[in-house]
Amino acid sequence: MLEQLATGEKHDPTILLPNAWYDLMGTVVAGPKLAQPLSLASYTEGVRRQGRTPGRALVTLDRFPCPDALAAETGLTRGEPVWHLERVLLADDERVGLESTYVAVARIPDLDTAFDPDSSFYAHLAEQGIAFGDADERIETVLATPREALLIGTPPALPMLLIHRVSRDTGGRPLERVRTLYRGDRFSFTAHLRG
Question: Could you tell me which of 110, 92, 31 has the C-alpha nearest to residue 56?
Answer without folding.
Answer: 92
